Amino acid sequence: MILCDAGVLLCLVDRTQPQHNAYRTAVTGLAQPLITTWACLTEAMYLSLHRGGWAMQKQLGQLLLDKLLLIYEIQENDYARLLDRMEKYRDRPMDLADATLVLAAEKTGHRQILTLDSDFLFYRIGDRDTFDVIQVQ
Question: Which of the following CATH numbers is that of domain 2-133: 3.40.50.300, 3.30.420.10, 3.40.50.1010, 3.20.20.370?
């Protein structure tokens, strides 16, 4: 599976985004669903509300209903690890949504990510492995 951050989720539903068509085409061509976290989806929903209202939020929700997007559930015993990641990368700074994606990569072993965020070039999975940032043109 391929991890997906909030910026890409917004890009998929906001036609005013410069890379909207490229990301829609790339995601439509995948043979597998994307995986994200509630924190990323919440961030994308918030941004969608302010950019396109309920109609844009509904499009995001439809990705879940169509099973094109799955949610990785953060467990209570992972909260300390999230805060640890945020502290380690506080110079960037790392927000909660990004920390949840790093944690999801650590827990699932999935390294591929769709992101508009260059920080994923610096973040490390388990303090050693790099993300495989998928370039979309």
Answer: 3.40.50.1010
